[in-house]
Amino acid sequence: MKLKTLTTAILLTLPTVVTHAAALDRSGQSMSAFLQPGNYFEAGISVLDPTVKGKESGESDTKRHISDMADDYYFPSAALKLQIHDKISFGLLYDQPFGASAAYNGNNVFVSNPGNDTILGQDALNGLAAKSIGNLVTAAGAAFAPALQAVTSVTGGNPSNPTQNEILGALQQVAKAGNATVAGGLTSLQQTQTALETAKSYLGTGNTQVDVDTQNLSFVVGFQPTENFNIYGGGVYQTVKGQVSLRGQAYSLFNGYDANIKETGGAGWLAGAAFQIPDIALKLSATYRSEIDHDVDVKESLSVLSFPALNSVLLGLDVTPAQLQAIGTTGKTKITTPQSVNIDFQTGIMENTVAFVNARWVDWSNFSIQPYQFGKISEAVGELVQRPNGFNLVEYADDQWTITAGVGRKFNDKWAGNVSAGWDSGAGNPITTLGPTEGYWNVGLGLQYSPTPATFIAGGVKYFGLGDADAQTGAQAGSNDYVATFEDNYAIAYGLKIGYKF
């Protein structure tokens, strides 16, 4: 079983034809094209059709259905590999490694409901009111107990377990008796509550959506000291761009936030090594890709910032003047795409048949996105949601692990195919509302037709069972709180690839 007559025919149809993975991972960043023998070119396109439905749950006050929020998307890839010397090879690889595409619709906490959405969640509003009233009870001192007794004697209530309205009634009696501190506090409380009600009309309209794209161009040089070894490395240029809109009660104050991430580039590197025994169709490779930093200009807007009385409201909610001033500043946003490792193994198991295993690790647990102004606002209001240091727009709790295994077989000189199965760990649960699934399992089929020994066309299809997940906002990340649950979802992926050996 020679490598050039067996594995070239079979492994071009491997599951890199179509893919889908956890978090923002898309292409899988395969190096298989560069490790083909001789001179080689390929170009392909993959399409993913996901269905991700759910329902409101957890911290949501309502429990409504959430229709399919995952958009279809496609991504192309291409590779050119030149064997410029017996021991030196060069490769140019293009792919789109990371991305997101989603939009919520219908009537749920991710779609604005003007007139009903509030600037903070109802629990937070109730907590703030209770805190303010408690401070006024303390300020009322000894005068509060007899005032409460007088109020509950009229209402028929229990003074040891009064309602909020009975407490407010008692405080009003204390204020009328001449307690200026309580009187001023009640006026301030009323003004804050009125302003919060007015602020509702300044929240966003529309629906939550996200569209993020990246592009990679890898320049790779390989050195083959012997037929069995290949050591390679090179530089990577990557661009990133995107748009994010947050809408609906789930995002409270950020209902009406938009971020337009201007396309920008960053540089990284990759390095790897491969070992092969052509006579038994054995090949083992390991590739490391570095993280890549991007200093991005993000155009941000938040509709509630146009509310004239917002500053006085936030000051009434214990936001400091320094934090208010920081909200209006601008600056660069740093986005760092994650480092990763790919390991690929194949071996002949019988005549015209190979088995293969591909494994991938991505360092999502150290990934986060916090646009500059989003971060300043989150720090200002963080105390209101028990996040005094602010929070991220997107972050992940766990690293991603993906494993795919299968068998490829050459049927004759023109036809070859493969079957595969895969598993992906996901990047944590609960997970961001902008991508609410936890990993997957999949099964796939690939088929290749070679009209000539030098050319081929390959196609593939995969079915993904997407993992159930609880979805949480950035303000909830790091806790067990969530606002929706997504279950029993799936995706179907299709791919087409052409290749030429020369």
From TrEMBL:
GO molecular function: long-chain fatty acid transporting porin activity
Membrane topology: Multi-pass membrane protein
Keywords noted in UniProt: Cell outer membrane, Membrane, Signal, Transmembrane, Transmembrane beta strand
Gene3D superfamilies (alphabetical): Outer membrane protein transport protein (OMPP1/FadL/TodX)
Primary localisation category: membrane
Localization: Cell outer membrane
Highest rank taxon of the organism: Bacteria
Entry's Gene Ontology cellular component terms: cell outer membrane
Keyword Ribonucleoprotein: no
Signal sequence, start to end: 1-21
InterPro entries, sorted: OMPP1/FadL/TodX (IPR005017)
Transmembrane among keywords: yes
Coiled coil: none
Family: Belongs to the OmpP1/FadL family.
PANTHER family membership: OUTER MEMBRANE PROTEIN NMB0088-RELATED
Protein name per its UniProtKB record: Long-chain fatty acid transporter
Organism: Acinetobacter lanii
